[in-house]
Predict the structure.
Amino acid sequence: MAYQALYRKWRPSNFEEVKGQDHIVTTLKNQIEMNRIGHAYLFCGTRGTGKTSIAKIFAKAVNCEHPVNGSPCNECAMCRAVNEQRSMNVIEIDAASNNGVDNIREIREEVAYSPSEGKYKVYIIDEVHMLSIGAFNALLKTLEEPPSYVIFILATTEAHKIPITILSRCQRYDFRRISTGTIAERLRELADAEGIDAEDAALAYVARMADGSMRDALSLLDQCNAFYIGQRLKYENVLDVLGAVDTSVFGSLLKSICSQDVSGVIHLIDEIVMQGRDLTQFVVDFTWYLRNLLMVQSSGDLTDLVEASAEQLEVMRQEASGIDASVLMRYIRIFSDLSGQVRYSTQKRVLVEVALIKLCHPAMERNLDAVLNRLAILEQKVANGVVVASQASGAGIAGGNPEEISGGQQGTDTFFQPEQKAVSEDLRMIIDRWKQMTDDLTPSMALMLKGAVISEGPDNQLIIALADDMRYGYFVEEGHRQALENALSERVGKQVKVNPVQPDKGENNNSQFIDPVQAFQGIDIVYED
Ligand SMILES: [Zn+2]
């Protein structure tokens, strides 16, 4: 016998087997039981939510000789005829391919004849929004005065495309996306009945991928099962077939991001690409993973909204405990933005890499999220007893200047040292855009740079002629000079060498005079001579 796809084979044959649309099923069953059947129904909802399945069950039920609680018996001659697709009473029309006036006129002519057997002629028009305007008008004529033995069931995924004149003559039913839990339960039932040995986690993943569509879920299960026929269907197998990435990879990825290990992160992406995983899917899955961590982390019990085994949940709890919620939210924001971009991009990998580097370096962003992220990193380090000092701490100012803690990008070891050295071109850019380059330095450093004259020196050094001896003294200190170098390097993405020089004692000494009161206005630091 030819293989029958799971979704065909397991199409529900009575209302009890329909999953996730209880509100609709109950109403329709009541109408049948109380014999208050309408003449025009509109079923709206995304694909695979059971619109045509319910339409067929309904068509069977209204004709059934012995309906049970409003459901068809599936045993009488009428039910069997419908099931075997030889009933003249149930007429299915696909409006996508029969969308013209003539097609609808044909229906109008047919409608004139009462059914030769059974009570109702049921017309199921699928994808009804595809009808032409002329066809809609022709249909409207029939809907205005339908014979008592005719029922129209219009099904659509796009209810907004249906003329209001049609809408107003139909009972409308909105089909919901089916919850992942409901789909997973159904998959379990079918897998057991079909003798498919499958892990719960595998089915849960398939259910999530189906995104509310039972039909998609069954097709995916079919696909996975065909690949691993006769073997136990494991979670990893499903990931393989669907080109998805294992959550344990997400765990190590997150760890690398949190420890700002850019090279680790990029290598992981390389592995993922090499395994032939789909990056669009990866971005969606990683966003979900982050969302799950946020759920696990929350104080209320939201873990039932996370599809994971008990062991996985425990692992996630541990992973989540080390991360601030605001940081997770920042990651989610960046990644959900990314999922929109990556879908249609030809440079998926580059986009993903850039986003991940962004996650590693909150200092590269200027928004509140990123600042909070930087704070969280610092707090964590302080809590762990790591002394936060400038990169140059080894060079003699360990534990030196407390202002370095607030220095963020230039002061902490969050700094990412670029490999390339700045060349003349880069230096000229720095000089041209000096104000931009230095706009988020610490207040004290900004003050020290006030009045400085910047120029390009030999050996690709940036010469900074300070305004006075005190300022010169400040930058002669290794730590301060390096902090400035780091800040500039980060801006241009190349290593910048700074050479502070003494102020010109000569003619323009006076012109560099800065009123100390003015200079310290609004800057909250303790100044010691
Ligand atoms: Zn029956």
Summary: The beta strands are 40-44, 90-94, 121-126, 150-156, 171-174, 453-456, 461-465, 497-501. Residues 194 and 386 are 57 Å apart (CA to CA). The chain is about 50% helix and 10% strand. The radius of gyration is 34 Å.
